[in-house]
Amino acid sequence: MDNPLYSVAQIRAIEQAAQSQLRPLGTSGPSPLMRRAGEAASTYALEVLGGLPTGRILVLAGPGNNGGDALEVAANLANLGANVDVVHLAGTAPSPETGHALARAQASRARFVSDVADCNGCCLVVDGLFGIGLARPLAGQARALVEWTHGMACPVLALDVPSGLDADTGSVVGPDGVAVRATHTITFLGDKPGLHTGDGCDHAGRVHVNRLGAHGLHTEAAHARLNAPALFAGCLAPRRNNSHKGTYGDVAVLGGARGMAGAGILAARAALYAGAGRVFVAAVDPGPGLDPLQPEIMFRDAAGFAFDGRTVVAGPGMGDSAGATHLLSKVIDGTGPLVVDADALNLCAASPDLAARLAAHGGEVVITPHPLEAARLLGVTAAVVQADRLENARELAERLDAVVVLKGAGSVIARPDGEVALNATGNPGLATGGTGDVLAGLVGTLLGQGWPAWEAALAATWLHGAAADRLVAGGAGPIGLTAGELPRAIRAELNALVADAALA
Length: 504
Ligand SMILES: NC(=O)C1=CN([C@@H]2O[C@H](COP(=O)(O)OP(=O)(O)OC[C@H]3O[C@@H](n4cnc5c(N)ncnc54)[C@H](OP(=O)(O)O)[C@@H]3O)[C@@H](O)[C@H]2O)[C@@H](O)CC1
Ligand SMILES: [K+]
Hints:
Layout: E1 4-5, H1 8-22, H2 33-49, E2 56-61, H3 65-79, E3 83-88, H4 96-107, E4 111-112, E5 124-128, H5 140-149, E6 156-159, E7 184-188, H6 200-203, E8 206-210, E9 224-226, E10 250-255, H7 261-273, E11 278-283, E12 298-301, E13 311-314, H8 322-332, E14 338-340, H9 342-350, H10 352-359, E15 365-367, H11 371-378, H12 382-387, H13 389-400, E16 403-406, E17 412-414, E18 420-422, H14 435-448, H15 453-473, H16 486-503
Parallel strand pairs: 2-3, 2-5, 3-4, 5-6, 6-7, 7-8, 9-18, 10-11, 10-13, 11-12, 13-14, 14-15, 15-16
Antiparallel strand pairs: 1-9, 16-17, 17-18
The structure holds ligand NPW and potassium ion.
């Protein structure tokens, strides 16, 4: 199933097409879209509340059409018998739709109040301050209202977009911005990337999409989507009986610098539990010759190791020594599938020559930077990367001609042709050392089994997050979840996916 995500510009185009389609021929009156948005949101509000509440509902309505949606909700809920308070930040030139919604709300039993001082006991806050028309950081009364909602223990339902959040990028509009932290968001006409990455993951809550009946108008191909097993199901294959370890690929982790042996071992364990036929740690410095917990992993001196014909996961615990740089250079000039992570990314960032040769690498390449590593590669700060995760991941994928997994909340998977997927699995338990090494090892195994880079990156990111979700559901986190627990959970998720795919 496809889960397209639309930019604000694309939503505006869809909105225009829908308006002309829905308006009676030859008329120019208000379009029914806002009415539909209000109806959909009122129905969803009652679903969130479990029916018509006895407590008060507070509706925050802004000056634009997002405020119009909110006024429709206020009128609908009040007409159904709910106790509704409205704080309305009136605009100077409301659209005909918003003017109509205001008249409906004023004619209903909804109570218009000037501030929220007597609304502390409410059972639901409806945020209709700003949607896709947000143009600058929140200030004044709008900011005060949003900060007030932060103290509310009740559900907060955002209309279209949590106010203060950029629907394209998922960052709070700043500097020093604030945004509503919704428990639920009902978003209109199409889903939006900003609800699923960066700050959006903390501000949107559960996202519900309502197309307002505008089906068939989403003609412009979305270049972003939510990651889902359907996007890589074609690569999920059950094991053949007539197979052997050579069938499932060799993965070699280029790492093992002094003092950092653990990172390479974590990547290697992940590769093993994800089903690689044989797994090596090719160590740049002398170190452990055995992982006592996972004796299946073979340890070699990287200097004399034959990387050819093997999938290389370069970077976990690799360090930045001259020896490490030389070995990285050698594998980049090879032709096999390649995962570039951690120290290997920093070395590429420091050397335009190495970066150019990486871009020219003959085989499949996936790079797995966290925001700071991505920033170094792009020559900007991590804050700049985080301010627009999608565009920066796209830019990096194009520059390095590689599939990029930009890690962090709502990981962004980007392809050199501009295609992007956002990953919705995972939780803050993954914010701990070593989880990136596990992801890199997992990607390596899938590449080693012949998966294309795009599908390998999608599947690995999805599985990695799903494994963390499985662990948290079982009580192992999010606080204190360790990277070493992930490989077994990844194995469980992968086998479940393959079994499902076989049944489908
Ligand atoms: N049209 C339709 O048929 C449909 C529209 N729909 C709904 O409309 C929403 C988009 O509506 P919109 O374009 O009016 O933008 P919206 O988000 O309400 O904000 C713009 C207003 O806020 C103001 N403003 C901006 N930033 C500000 C700030 N920081 N602080 C203070 N003011 C600020 C700005 O005024 P400015 O001062 O910038 O001139 C303007 O007045 C969309 O998200 C969806 O909910 C759905 O019902 C589907 C059908
Ligand atoms: K809103």
